[in-house]
Specification:
- This protein has about 700 residues and is an alpha+beta fold.
- The chain folds into three domains: about 20-50 and about 105-260 and about 300-420, no CATH class; about 430-550, no CATH class; about 555-695, Coagulation Factor XIII, Chain A, domain 1 (Distorted Sandwich), CATH 2.70.50.60.
- The strands form three sheets. It has a seven-stranded antiparallel β-sheet, with helices on one face.
């Protein structure tokens, strides 16, 4: 154990040049180069596209380039903005492209390795530092998170850098603290890093507590050190917290902005009610996710579902390293390491193993320190007991473990995970390929895109980042239930710019037969993906929107009504005027947009602000006996003159009485459920319009 006196000597004495330092740095640079090669390999194809969260970062980075200055981002259930500013800076140099976005996490993954090496070398020694970064660099966890364009990847780099700067600055003699400007510059950097963490990822709101907690530890066991460092530490931590004050002022003024905090509600409510089992079960799930196959993070966008962070041997070494730290808990470096790891996994202790790859990412730098400590301690013990040959054998065995870990990680990441049909679907591979298809075509003009997620922060953001050209007018809907027809098209299908109109529909969002039968569509090409893909192709249609509009009008009965002075009902088509109990009502309504500004969501990232078209079937007593509320051509994309065809299908109760049912339609916004007022021939008729009656008859 290291007592107070020996600690003071170790931390303040003038160190003679260590001839081994150059060798340590040489080996580290080799590890870093190999890690960089692994993180850059096939970066254009693995991951095989973009997730919605990644595309949201890209979209917000472009918005910052165009002048936006967010203090908090509302897309993706709410998130801190610093990573988006970093992306904006990279895009300013490399262009607003998907390649720049995909590259953006790589430097932070490498910085995490550098900061980890620097801190472990300072707090422990060179061999331990090399072992820790070698294992980290070879791990699946580090490899995967270094290639995810998510803000979470910044956090371990910032935290490890903060720990290094803190360890370097506060463990100096009192006279240096009092007299040297460099010390206070280091503490200023420490404060900036704490503030940066708080602007990066929500777990940082727990991580800063590690430093005051470490002061308490020093006050109890190492009072001389405590007296030397407590004031600079508190000043720096408070300064870092003050830097984040604008963020928390915004959050206080917008209490509904942080939807992610709702994920903590269930376990915390159970804990407050006296039921500790929920928290204990999730905490066990978090711990098991490090060691037990099948119990790891199950979020396939980030990892192979169920894959633990450690293989069995590394897991055993981890436990041995933790045991060594507990046995030598009076050593500040070991005590700090345990505090860091516990704070790093604290979010997952509450939420469980789900998404722990990102929620526990602050523990990534220190997690591989523990097996490294076990190996280095074991090698030194073997050398003292049996001589250098056994120590060399231990070292070679560890090198073999690192190589085996790297090979397994590369295989699992690039082959098992990267080629998985489920992963390709999660990363919107077919949609990204459709963007590449359009980039290769000469035509400009309108392109209508049918997708499963046509709302703004989802597929449109993925497409925006993936598409390189900017001369296309893109329109969004899900043709399984809706069709959006843009205005002002001559019969030839060209627009004022001379380009042709095209419609692209993947297998997952193919046209409903009601739309596929329209005379305006001609198949140009069917583009195949892999045969085992969940979305194995997309079809490109040449499209004449005005012909489609005329055909839809011919199929509908007129029904003039105005909703909110912004949306006009043009007509409807009830596919069958009679229905049996338990049967299905199918209704197609045709709408025209007259004032899109009144209908467009203020916050495009919040799907709850979108409009909903409802169709209700009411019995003679006015009770709703069947309904469907949906809108598959979302209002964020509407322009004046657009026509929307929406299909509503719903099943009636099997025990429904015979007789007439009134079919009514209307419009409301999901966020407040307030319906738009309806007018017929300029007269208010309430908030719904009666179309006609459906007769319920026996089969």
């Amino acid at each position: 154990m290291i007592g107070v006196r020996s600690l003071e000597v170790d931390l303040t004495k003038s160190q003679a040049p260590n001839p081994k330092s150059a060798g340590h740095w040489t080996l580290f640079i080799l590890i870093l180069l190999l890690a960089a090669a692994l993180r850059l390999y096939r970066l254009d194809s693995v991951p095989p596209g973009l997730t919605h969260d990644e595309a949201g970062h890209g979209h917000d980075g472009i918005a910052i380039l165009r002048g936006a200055r967010p203090i908090y981002e509302t897309v993706g259930y709410g998130r801190e903005p610093l990573y988006d500013y970093v992306i904006a800076g990279l895009m300013a140099m490399g262009g607003p492209t998907g390649r720049v976005l995909r590259f953006s996490p790589v430097p932070f993954g490498l910085l995490t390795l550098l900061a980890t090496f620097a801190w472990v070398r300072l707090a422990f020694d060179g061999p331990t530092a090399l072992a820790a970064v070698a294992l980290q660099a070879a791990s699946f966890w580090s490899l995967a998170t270094s290639r995810q364009a998510l803000r979470s990847g910044m956090l371990p780099a910032l935290l490890a850098s903060a720990v290094y700067v803190y360890w370097r600055s506060v463990h100096k003699p009192r006279e240096i603290i009092q007299k040297k400007l460099g010390f206070w510059l280091e503490m200023g950097a420490f404060a900036l890093l704490i503030g940066a963490m708080l602007y990066t990822y929500i777990p940082a709101r727990v991580l800063w507590v590690v430093f005051p907690a470490f002061l308490i530890y020093l006050a109890i066991l190492h009072r001389a050190t405590f007296r030397r460092v407590w004031l600079p530490t508190l000043i720096a931590v408070l300064a870092g917290l003050l830097l984040s004050a604008p963020l928390f002022a915004y959050l206080r003024a917008h209490p509904g902005a942080e939807q992610r905090l709702e994920m903590l509600d269930v376990p915390l409510q159970a804990l407050l009610s006296g039921d500790i089992s929920v928290v204990l079960n999730r905490a066990w799930g978090c711990i098991a996710g490090f060691f037990v196959p099948g119990r790891g993070d199950d979020f396939l966008a980030y990892t192979i579902p169920g894959r633990p962070f450690f293989d069995p041997l590394t897991g055993a070494l981890f436990l041995a390293g933790v045991g060594l730290c507990l046995a030598r808990w009076r050593d500040p470096a070991r005590a700090f390491s345990l505090m860091w790891f516990l704070a790093g996994i604290s979010p997952s202790l509450i939420t469980g193993s789900a998404a722990s790859s990102t929620r526990s990412i602050a523990a990534l730098p220190v997690a591989f320190l523990f097996p490294a400590l076990a190996v280095v301690t074991g090698a030194r013990w073997a050398m003292a007991r049996w001589g250098g040959r056994i120590a060399w054998a231990v070292g070679l065995g560890f090198v073999g473990l690192v190589l085996a870990t790297g090979v397994a990680s590369a295989r699992d990441y690039f082959v098992v995970w990267g080629e998985s049909p489920d992963v390709r679907a999660a990363y919107q591979h077919t949609l990204v390929e459709a963007a590449g298809y359009l980039d290769a075509q000469p035509e400009s003009g309108v392109v209508a895109l049918s997708t499963v997620y046509p709302h703004a922060p989802h597929d449109p953001y993925v497409f925006e980042i993936s598409l390189q050209r900017r001369d296309l007018s893109l329109r969004w809907f899900d043709a399984c239930r809706a069709l959006l027809i843009p205005p002002s098209f001559p019969p030839s299908g060209g627009d004022e710019r001379g380009g042709g109109a095209r419609l692209i529909a993947p297998a997952s969002a193919s046209l409903d037969t009601y739309f596929a039968d329209l005379p305006s569509l001609r198949v140009r090409e069917r583009v195949e993906m892999r045969s085992d893909d969940l979305d194995p192709f997309f079809i490109v249609y040449d499209w004449e929107p005005q012909v489609a509009w005329a055909a839809l009008r011919e199929r509908t009965q007129g029904a003039r009504a105005d909703f909110g002075g912004a949306l006009r009902l043009l007509g409807y088509n009830l596919r069958a005027p009679t229905v049996a109990p338990g049967g299905t009502i199918e209704l197609v309504t045709l709408w025209q947009v007259t004032n899109p500004q009144l209908l467009r969501p203020q916050n495009l990232s919040n799907a709850n602000e979108e409009l909903v078209l409802f169709t209700h079937a009411l019995d003679a007593a006015g009770n709703i006996v069947g309904q469907e509320d949906r809108l598959d051509a979302p209002a964020w994309d509407w322009q004046t003159g657009d026509t929307i065809a929406q299909i509503h299908r719903f099943t009636l109760p099997p025990d429904l009485s015979l007789g007439p049912l009134a079919l009514k339609v209307g419009v409301y916004r999901r966020s407040d459920l307030v319906r738009l007022p309806a007018l017929v021939d300029g007269e208010k008729v309430g908030d719904a319009v009666l179309l006609q009656y459906v007769e319920v008859v026996s089969e």
